[in-house]
Amino acid sequence: MRLPTSEPRRVQLNLTSLIDVLFILIIFFVVSSTWREQPVLELDLPEAGTAQNQPVDDVVVTVDGDGSVYLGDRPVTKEALASELAVALGESPGAVVITADEAAPHGTVVHILDAARAQGASRVLLSALPGKKRSSEAAGPLPGEPARE
C-alpha cells in the first residue's frame, strides 16, 4: 500500500480584493480633492498695499511682460479681443479680471480695460499681490513722480 506523500502546497495570493481596495482609494481621493485652475504663464504681479484676495470665477485676461494677451489660457490678438470678450461674457456680463505682469505695457492694459467696458462687463478688476501698505510720507515718491520738498 502506498502512502500519500505530502507535497509542499504553493501559496497563492489573490490580488483581486487588494486591487479593488486600491481602486476605491483612488476614486475617494479623486472625488474628495479640489481642482484649481493654475495659471499657465509665470507673471511678476505688482504689489499693492490695499490688495484683497477675492475668489472670482469670471473672465480672466492675462498680459505677459512682452505685451502678449491671453483670454483664459488661449492667446488672442488685440484686434480680436473685443469679439472674444463678447463671446466669453455671453448673455450675462460678469466681471473681467486683468492679470498683467509688472513689466506689461500700460497701453495694452488700457486697451483691455476699454474693450471689457465696451462689451458690457459689470466690473473690471486688476490683479495684484498683497503687499505692505505704503505710507506716502515715509516711502517717498512713486516711480516717475517728482520728489517733494
What does this structure look like?
The structure is a single chain. The protein is α/β, with parallel strands linked by helices and 149 residues long. It has a domain at 47-130: 2-Layer Sandwich (Nucleotidyltransferase, domain 5). The protein is built from four helices and seven strands. The strands form two sheets. Strands 4-3-2-5-6 form a five-stranded mixed β-sheet, covered by helices on one side. A two-stranded parallel sheet has the order 1-7. Helix 2 (81-89) packs across helix 3. The chain is elongated. The protein starts with 15 loop residues before the first helix and ends in a 10-residue tail after the last helix. The model has no long low-confidence stretch (mean pLDDT 76).
In short:
This protein has about 150 residues and is of the alpha/beta class. The protein has helices at about 15-30, 80-90, 105-120, 135-140, and strands at about 45-50, 60-65, 70, 75, 95-100, 125, 130.
Supply the CATH architecture of the domain at 47-130.
2-Layer Sandwich
Radius of gyration: 29 Å
| CATH domain class of the domain at 47-130 | Alpha Beta
Global outline: elongated
The end-to-end distance, rounded to whole angstroms, is: 120 Å
Poorly predicted regions are none
Number of strands: 7
Physical arrangement of strands within the biggest beta sheet: 4-3-2-5-6
The fold-level CATH name of the domain at 47-130 is: Nucleotidyltransferase, domain 5
Please estimate the helix content: 25-40%
Kindly estimate the percentage of residues that lie in beta strands according to DSSP.
15-25%
Task: Compute the average pLDDT.
Answer: 76
Number of helices: 4
Structural classification: alpha/beta
Order of helices and strands: HEEEEHEHEEH
Largest sheet: 5 strands, mixed
